[in-house]
Design goal:
alpha/beta, globular, Amidase signature (AS) enzymes, 11-stranded mixed β-sheet, about 425 residues
Length: about 425
């Protein structure tokens, strides 16, 4: 099937179309977040000035998918330098959330175009990056699956950094099975960059979940949550119980809001050190909100950053001990649904309030569609696993898909055609 360039343009989902697709195989199609290198195609990074105008080689995840016979069809838009959860982009424009043709709503960020492309059926799978929720947030906002592994499973060679100690590369698809199969291909050691072994999608998808003990964050631990999100979150817990999972309400050692702030400190500090030169050269043509976020990291000196990492190690140890009593942890992916772009408050980060913990604590996590609000907007369920336990995350996600009734549904695109 030919790539629908008209729909892609209407949704402002992609930055570059490969015609013909890259790769000699006849496997599934995939798109690539424009923070990930494709040889001799500019890595735009969501800005007017590319991070690299002519990368010498494909990033490791792209290479592996092509070698496995998959076909690359496009590069997708991102929040500028991947620093934002709303999906806005004042430098080159924000993708359009495909669930509302009348109102330009947030697609979620920062892997905004990847989620839009998958939701709109422009590709089977898309690659994204996740530093504080950037795979899972747009997955929730656009009604697709987002799968973020723990660190060290996927080689990030050729994947441009936001904050090196937090970054991961993950997959977005309309089903957990395809997201997991994509993860299997891109997982495994590579030039010392990824130190963990591989991941078996088939083993994970075949893992039984009956009797697993799963913690569910209580509403009191979530902060402000939109009523429709709370309703669908409660419904999702009931569906998992129907699948034989023991779902128990339990609060973690620290409120998730504290992890939001602590993750943000490291993100800003490392982000400034990575992108200081790019910002100095190009700030005049950059989104001023992005510049402001990076410059906040300038005020965090090396001692403060080192102290933040010590605190992170302590928090991880404490949380991992608590989580060891469960097989996974549930929460809404985002406490709100996709808002109109005109209502976005760039000084706030509600979309990442519940996702940043997985990066800060170095845990695998997935976002699964769990229903539509009365407005017809998707809501995501987040499943967070124990350290390095992508298998249980995928197994629970598969079990939830079987009982939730979503069945890979997509938006009505007639208003965009």
């Amino acid at each position: 099937m030919a790539f629908d360039t008209h729909l892609a343009d209407r949704l402002h989902a992609v930055t570059h179309v490969f015609d013909p697709p890259l790769g000699a195989g006849d496997g599934p199609s995939f798109a690539i977040k424009d923070l990930i290198d494709v040889a001799h195609v500019p890595t735009g990074g969501g800005g007017r000035v590319p991070l690299d105008a002519d990368p010498a080689r494909h990033a490791a995840p792209v290479e592996r998918l092509l070698e496995a016979g998959w076909r690359a069809v496009a590069k997708t838009h991102t929040v500028e330098l991947a620093y934002g959860g709303w999906g806005t982009n004042r430098a080159v424009g924000a993708p359009w959330n495909p669930w509302d043709a009348a109102t330009h709503r947030c697609p979620g960020g920062s892997s905004s175009g990847s989620a839009v492309a998958v939701a709109a059926g422009l590709c089977d799978l898309a690659l994204g990056t996740d530093t504080g929720g950037s795979v899972r947030i747009p997955a929730a906002a656009c009604g697709v699956v987002g799968l973020k592994p723990g660190r060290g499973l996927v080689a990030t060679r050729g994947v441009r950094d936001l904050a090196p100690s937090l970054d991961t590369c993950g997959t977005l698809a309309r089903s957990i099975a395809l997201a997991a199969r994509g993860l299997e291909i891109i997982a495994g050691p590579d030039d010392g960059i990824a130190g963990r072994g591989g991941f078996s999608a088939e083993a994970a998808l075949a893992t039984p979940v009956e009797g697993l003990r799963v913690a569910a964050l209580p509403l009191s631990a979530l902060g402000e949550v939109e009523p429709e999100v709370a309703r669908l979150y409660a419904q999702a817990q009931a569906r998992l119980r129907e699948a034989g999972v023991r779902v128990e309400t339990a609060a973690p050692p620290e409120p998730f809001a504290s992890y939001l702030e602590l993750n943000g400190t490291i993100m800003a500090a490392e982000g400034w050190r990575v992108r200081e030169g790019h910002i100095a050269r190009n700030r005049a043509v950059m989104d001023p909100w992005i510049v402001r976020r990076f410059e906040a990291g300038r005020e965090i000196d090396d001692d403060a950053l080192a102290a933040a990492h010590v605190r992170r190690t302590e928090d991880q140890a404490r949380f991992h001990v608590w989580l060891s009593g469960f097989d996974a942890l549930l929460s809404p992916t985002c406490p709100i649904v996709a808002a109109p772009l005109t209502s976005v408050d760039e000084t706030q980060s509600p979309m990442s309030r519940l996702t940043r913990a997985a990066n800060y604590l170095d845990l695998p996590a997935a976002s699964l569609p769990c229903g539509l609000t009365d407005q017809g907007l998707p809501v995501g369920l987040q499943i967070m696993g124990r350290p390095r336990d992508e298998t249980t995350v995928v197994a629970l996600a598969q079990a939830f898909e079987r009982v939730c009734g979503w069945n890979g549904r997509g938006p009505d695109l007639s208003g965009f055609r």
